[in-house]
Recover the amino acids of this structure.
């Protein structure tokens, strides 16, 4: 069973950069797409973007270019940087694996990390 | 972006009830529709992908149907562990978007 464990600061100041890392254990990053998804408190789910293990990325336009996802296959980790954060970026952030283990992205998510609450506040 | 809507936003049901949740996309998404269950404080869990395919060990009381823009999730006989919020999500095109959710609670 693949386990995803997000880590990072739980509090970020406005205008600064939110940085999270997802460590994957029990399996390899290879051949999969890996996503970040967030959920503001009491609200619904928003897909942020994905990265393929070889480095190809795609992002939601709603983030207006503020998000960057990177991968480190040597550490079996992928990361999210979100710059110029505001209170609207306060959310539980999830890392998740795409269901497809082939070279294409299915866009459905079959393995999720436990979620990490990030609060943007001074 | 493809917009997803769900109805109802919440419902109250009893154990053993048949429950149906509907999801509509703002355009045709073929069968690129997924359903998730989320319990409080937990990550979502994939129930159904490709509109009607049960994921892994998901119980057979869950079923999905539909294609194009209109979809349904049915729980044939509601069990105690089914009280949760259910989200639909389209994977037809990026950005992948979710519906607002349907909360199922105990009557």
């Amino acid at each position: 069973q693949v386990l995803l464990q997000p880590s990072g600061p739980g509090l970020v100041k406005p205008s600064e950069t939110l940085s999270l890392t997802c460590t994957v254990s029990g399996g390899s990053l290879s051949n999969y797409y890996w996503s970040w998804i967030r959920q503001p408190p009491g609200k619904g789910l928003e897909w942020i973007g994905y990265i393929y293990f070889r480095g190809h990325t795609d992002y939601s336009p709603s983030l207006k270019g503020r998000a960057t996802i990177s991968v480190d296959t040597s550490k079996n980790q992928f990361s999210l940087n979100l710059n110029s954060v505001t209170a609207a970026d306060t959310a539980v952030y999830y890392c998740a694996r795409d269901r497809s283990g082939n070279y294409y992205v299915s866009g459905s998510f079959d393995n999720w990390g436990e979620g990490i609450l990030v609060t943007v506040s001074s | 972006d493809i917009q997803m809507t769900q109805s109802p936003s919440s419902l109250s049901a009893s154990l053993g009830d048949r429950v149906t949740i509907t999801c509509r996309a703002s355009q045709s998404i073929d069968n690129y529709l997924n359903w998730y269950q989320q319990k409080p404080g937990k990550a979502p869990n994939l129930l159904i992908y490709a509109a009607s395919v049960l994921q892994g060990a998901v119980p057979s009381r869950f079923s999905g149907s539909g294609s194009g823009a209109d979809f349904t999730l049915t729980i044939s006989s509601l069990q105690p562990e089914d009280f949760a919020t259910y989200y639909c999500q389209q994977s037809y095109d990026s950005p992948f978007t979710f519906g607002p959710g349907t909360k199922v609670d105990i009557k």
Q: What stands out?
A: Chain A touches chain B through 21 residues (CB under 8 Å). Chain A has a mean pLDDT of 96. The longest strand of chain A covers residues 18-25. Chain A has no helices and eleven strands.
